[in-house]
Design goal:
Length: 309
Amino acid sequence: MKILVTGGGGFLGSHLVERLEADGHDVFVARRAGYDLTKWDDAARMFADAKPEQVFHLAGEVGGIGANRVNPGRFWYANLMMGAHVLELSREHGLGKLVIAGTVCAYPKFAPVPFREDDLWNGYPEETNAPYGLAKKMLLVQAQAYRQQYGTNAIVLFPVNLYGPRDNFDPHTSHVIPAMLRKFHEAKDRNEPEVVLWGDGSPTREFFYVEDCAEGILLAAELYDSSDPVNLGSGEEIAIRALAEKIARLVKYEGGIRWDTSKPNGQPRRKLDVSRAKERFGFRAATNFDEGLRRTYEWMRGARFAGRD
């Protein structure tokens, strides 16, 4: 099958492309350097070049709390326009199937835990990442509207926080696991007496190994055809304070940890109800969290903190 993957050179995209190519598909990888998907002409040229039968839309402009606070307008506009263009062009081309990656940031700040797909509209997202989360949630609205009016076979998946090899370890834009791994590793190398982390350590997060996510996306592409959104995650929750202590042990950092409570915590809790993915297309995460962290740290050390677009 001829398959187009937007964001195929990125963190999740690179793992998905590897799996698709291993399965014998003809994969067209769309990268930011070649196509600015916020521009209609670039997005149309991408479809003309790829001639896809199926599309995985993974492209996005993302980052941690700091990046979201600095770029709320850009994150809103870029993610909304990229998705809107891909959906409209999928409709125009009569695409066989479109798989869209949403985000856990779309959920309300105080959604009941675990987050169920039916709670997506029951409140406003956490303020620091609301523009990004709402832009991605608009793609669910568009996908459902296009299915209703045009019969477009678009499905929308909501993965929780990803981690794993090839993640972004840039200190200014990385998410919590790569940011902590790098911070503790460098503090150990420099013999620093303490590591300073944002917030008070009380929020909880669910983390999802990137290869498991790629597997879930492929299963959904093969077996799922519905307008209902579906969560993808591990179903396990850990406090940020406990995560920091776990990473310090992994890195063998023996200094102290100081929490900077002048910085935001972000959403109080994040844990998905992942039962729909199991019921609808038989997906369950397979990677143990400690093993996933170990693999991520080993990759980071080998890559010397190489960032990815």
